[in-house]
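Hey team,

Filing this mostly as a record. A colleague (T.K.) asked me to run one chain through the structure pipeline before their review meeting, and I want the input and output archived in the tracker in case anyone asks later how it was produced. No errors, nothing strange. Just documentation.

Input sequence:
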Amino acid sequence: MISIRLLALLLLASLALAADKPNILFIMSDDHAAQAVGAYGGRLAGLNPTPNIDRLAAEGMLFENAFVTNSICTPSRATLLTGQYGHINGVRTLNGRLPPSRQALAHGMRNAGYETAMIGKWHLGEEPAFDFYAVLPGQGSYFNPILRVSGGVWPKNEKRFSGYDSSHSSDVVANLSLDWLEQRDSDKPFFLMHHFKAPHDNFENAERYDFHYQDAVIPEPETLWQTPNHGSKATEGMGTSIGKRNQRRNMGHHMFVDPSLSEVDYKRAAYQRYLKKYLRTVRGVDDNVGRLLEYLEETGALDNTIVFYTSDQGFMLGEHDYIDKRWMYEESLRIPLLVRFPRAIEAGSRSNALAANIDFAPTILDLAGAPAPSEMQGRSFAPILKGQTPPDWRKSIYYRYWMHMAHHDNPGHYGIRTDRYKLIFFYGLPLDAVGAVDKATQPGWELYDIKEDPHETRNVYGKPEYEAIAGRLKQELLDLKSEVGDSDEKYPELMKVREQHWN
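Output structure:
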């Protein structure tokens, strides 16, 4: 029989272990483009869109080259929790579901001694495998949101939240996180995944921002207008536009712009309305990041908490006359990634290492002192946070978007992104139930020299001076595709297209 003294020693040992482990707060927004984070600079930085998020960059590390492996909500979230590409974890489209048994990050953190919580947007269909959860069903609502709260029977455990000082989703989700932090077991370190719905379209801001930016003129990207050498025959006319380019899908219609205006005036008016609604919604996210940081600071927990800020994907904000995400183009592919932890991360530091969202789960587990399961395909970037980029760190990332011509007229494609080049293959075929199953498009290639052309204004595929580079990248793409376990052999029609268009 264990003595009282031994029990006391074991308790003290467990408390000491918990004290040594940092808390981890993982904040993720939805569709928050890096170019709409002040710390990343660019045309919107002068509007000061994110002062609280920028604090994380000033006091921590900013990743300049963080990317997603599929720029769409549900697959991105499944990758976050599994450390796997969508073709491995089974979540390739918005129809995907991730059962509790597959939520490896949640299980790993609990096994590491953490009290775990998931609060906010979930979008994975199945019940979260966290100690506590309060999650929006599907996309959820921007005002007076209903959330499914742990303790009841999923998915009937729904409760409407409208009794706070604000009924806006960003404020409600922050209130729930603050309530949980206040009531949690203080003898354990915490792992809180705080996921905003905002600024996912259709953008709806809190009332306090109704007139924010009213008198401002939002700077336009140069590529909003003419970039005749961007894209290819495979993408010509595709994608939802700001202006009239896509008559069926354009933001001027949704922003109630007068259709009798000229193309120039129509596009300019639609852009201003679109960006102002977006940035107003972003400000509500930033407010609540500030509230979370303030609470941790007031309770003395901030400097023992590793704080992440990121987004589930990037977002097109008028670049190339596009909105939404899905594309492998830079603004959609790239995500903000800021990490603050003064015990280990130098304030104001930056990294240009190629990080991907498959790396989040192994990194978080590593920082918690827990091993990553062997089936995780990502790699911990914890050494990079400490200023030590491993010499064998990845030289490229693999990307694949599966939902051919669904919702925003984006064709299916895959590609490779290195530190300098990007090669994209648009294969022109629907391969999944989600998408225009009867609508094939023209296959084609796009190649961009990111160093010489960071805004991707010139597709140099087929240019003689890039022929050798294209050939090398094609082989690297095939090698990386094989390495990550993505095979097209079960799609005979795609294999035929590859044979016709690969060389």
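Quick notes for T.K.: Residues 6-17 have pLDDT under 50 and may be disordered. The longest strand covers residues 23-29.
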